[in-house]
Known about the structure:
Two copies of one chain form a homodimer.
Chain A: H1 3-40, H2 44-74, H3 78-113, H4 121-144, H5 147-177, H6 182-214, H7 223-230
Helix pairs in contact in A: 1-2, 1-3, 1-4, 2-3, 3-6, 4-5, 4-6, 5-6, 5-7
Subcellular location (chains A, B): Cytoplasm
Function (chains A, B): Plays a role in the regulation of phosphate uptake.
Protein name (chains A, B): Phosphate-specific transport system accessory protein PhoU
Amino acid sequence: xxxxxxxxxxxxxxxxxxxxxxxxxxxxxxxxxxxxxxxxxxxxxxxxxxxxxxxxxxxxxxxxxxxxxxxxxxxxxxxxxxxxxxxxxxxxxxxxxxxxxxxxxxxxxxxxxxxxxxxxxxxxxxxxxxxxxxxxxxxxxxxxxxxxxxxxxxxxxxxxxxxxxxxxxxxxxxxxxxxxxxxxxxxxxxxxxxxxxxxxxxxxxxxxxxxxxxxxxxxxxxxxxxxxxxxxxxxxxxxxx
Amino acid sequence: xxxxxxxxxxxxxxxxxxxxxxxxxxxxxxxxxxxxxxxxxxxxxxxxxxxxxxxxxxxxxxxxxxxxxxxxxxxxxxxxxxxxxxxxxxxxxxxxxxxxxxxxxxxxxxxxxxxxxxxxxxxxxxxxxxxxxxxxxxxxxxxxxxxxxxxxxxxxxxxxxxxxxxxxxxxxxxxxxxxxxxxxxxxxxxxxxxxxxxxxxxxxxxxxxxxxxxxxxxxxxxxxxxxxxxxxxxxxxxxxx
Lengths: 241, 241
């Protein structure tokens, strides 16, 4: 690569990273707004989420196109290639977080249009804050190329799974006590499920950050080995694969 | 590329394609076995699904590694690069189909261990056959590089969404009529949801096949434009994005 091409490549790489961070910021806001619509019944927020979802979709396609072009034109080195391939995978997870946020917003609308307030919403609110923080932490780990921070997000996903199971039990109890709430409770279950999925996607993105920095693919390796590899240590036999 | 390198590259590309098709075959069998376990209560099938899920995870990591190496070493042309980047994305969807199949198998186990047979299972069986065919059709479209066939899968996903909504209504009615079935019915809802997700993933994979062959990114473009682009025609304004 000539010096000029090299400089151009790094500028383009930087733009790709910034666009991805921008997309992540939008998704974070979508999750918050969807949950806010659920708590407050402010349905203008639902429209806002749907508008942003289109922007997120547009960014997904644009970033993917940039990545293909950058690889095709520049024959990047191992490290830069890893970064580009990782962003390409992270993009998919980020876009799906956006989809889940949109589902939450739509269900918030349905719940409010059918009237009534729901007790388990408080619990979901907590879960939502938790997974939003996970998205933010994945983005931070990505921006700062910090695999140890990323491994923390992977660990946090276990917490989300616990909260999800707890919420599910809680909502089921609620339905059994008052079967008239069945239809609306199913919507709440889907909201909890959407939050749990967002946690999963944040975990996937963080695993990609570890791969980006360390070159180790930590998917399906178990949390202990993920943490070891994130610190740059060797993995140990765990039979977790 | 020298002739030798070129030949080696094409052999490696072929291996990557075959491994992906193998992975797809495993996932297809997992969905079928999971549903079979649900219908018959044959829980040895659940273990079989879980074994295969590990193999699918292993293949995902192996294929991704091959793709990175192929890109880094061979600086593939636009067409080959598009193929490799597409397989990389399809891999993620395929692995998640495997995850959903595993969830179905685990819920089949729980439902049978808690005893009882459930009326709505017949309906889910139909949905399962439909989405399994969608996975197979995506793989066929991929193997034969047939974008028109792929567009049919994208269209079929709308059918799955209808079946999902129908099943959901049916199961909710069932719960309201007999609230004692609430807990078990929730499991059935999750099975239906898992099937609906598998349909989504098959759709995503088919969209990648269209991109692979035509170079047009048809995500978020709406079904009519997807079909036009798959046939090699120009897209029209639809305001669907």
